[in-house]
Amino acid sequence: MESKAEKELERKLKQLDNELPWIFSDENTLNSVRTATNEVKKFDLSTIDFGDICQKIAVGINIAALLFPSINVFKRTFPLANLAKVFVELGKALESNNKAIEENKRHQRVQRTDIRSEANAFEKGLVTINAHLSVLRKAPEGVTEKLDFDITDSECVNFLQKLQGKTKSFIFAKDMESARKAGEYVNLYFRIAILRTVLLWQVYCIKRIIEVDRSGVQNIWEALVQSQKTDLEMLRLVTVAHFEKTMFLTVFHPNKNKNFLLFLRIQEYEIPCIAQDCRFTSQVHVIRSSNAPDVSLEMPSFHGSKCIVGTKEPTDACLCKFNPVQYRKLDNVFYITSSQGSKRYVCMSENGTCFSQKEEPGEEGQWKLVRLEDTSGGSPHFILSRLKLPCMFLCMDSIHNFSVIAGTRDLEKVKACGVWDILDL
What we know:
Elements: H1 4-23, H2 27-41, H3 50-67, H4 78-96, H5 98-102, H6 108-111, H7 114-134, H8 141-152, H9 154-171, H10 176-210, H11 215-239, H12 246-251, H13 258-267, H14 278-282, E1 285-289, E2 296-298, E3 309-311, E4 319-324, E5 333-338, E6 345-348, E7 354-357, E8 367-372, E9 381-386, E10 393-399, E11 402-408, H15 411-417, E12 420-424
Antiparallel strand pairs: 1-4, 1-12, 2-3, 3-11, 4-5, 5-8, 6-7, 8-9, 10-11
Helix pairs in contact: 1-2, 1-4, 2-3, 3-4, 3-13, 4-7, 4-10, 7-10, 8-10, 8-11, 9-10, 9-11, 10-11, 10-13
């Protein structure tokens, strides 16, 4: 049985759909908007999860982007009122899912800090505004001006900048604990950013109805534009891969950071992901040391050998493939397997010793692959770390003219002999 909120949402969407032909003369645009509204209609408030809510918000933003340029003087304001109501219902659903998100144990360390208390205060303020909007039928001038102040208040912007600064202070650190903290601040940032974006769009719809020629509309629009710029700066900070961020890039997994992942879904952004590159995953490769280009990783099979070595005389035992681990593509987690003869997997023991085995391994044989940005225009370099031992990096060492492949946590050593080229064959 449909709830009252679901009936209200369905009614508003139906009204919006009926009004669309009055706005769009272009049939293609009209069909695009109708397709988007149909997506929002597939919406069960009783069972929907947080990710689905964010998906509907993304569709709502798409509708707004198509709708606003097509209404020049806003003689017909009903579509905006209905779209505002759609955002309100989505915001209410967002709030109801808040507790489930906050139960995530990954945030416990941040929750005990002053900055987490600040975040809770801002989050509560944004949710309160959303609750106010949910009962708003007509938007008096004084109300919308107050909403303008609350949402675009410099304190909220400054807090997001503070979170970005905290992330920067940890993201370049050389210890794993700081790298994990950076990930927690990233999640916190995008949680607040998601709420703020939804509310800004709600208020923008309302203001466009009653303030056709006034500065309030422009102020909200500028806040939306600036918010997008700030969020993109944060996204670049997280995703642009340089060696100085090795620790962070190794321990930060998008699939394990829900708010970051949901932000990508809402804004429909894509991030660099080599595991989703079918050409890369279907190709046969050779793993070669960047600092000693004449040495390649080898899985010799003579006499049942299980060792992993470096060789200056490449053989078929150097040929390998990168097979994405199921459900971990976005995290760039792979099995590294031989491509010749019987399949064998590259693994690493607790002490860093590398070996191969025939049975599909668990996390001891799963590798986080980080592709470093190349500023010189040449081929990209890579860093490999065992998933179960975060920041235990695959490295090549030379002992008595013999190249040994093993794990190390020493970043200086990684920089000297733990950066790799992955060559296509």
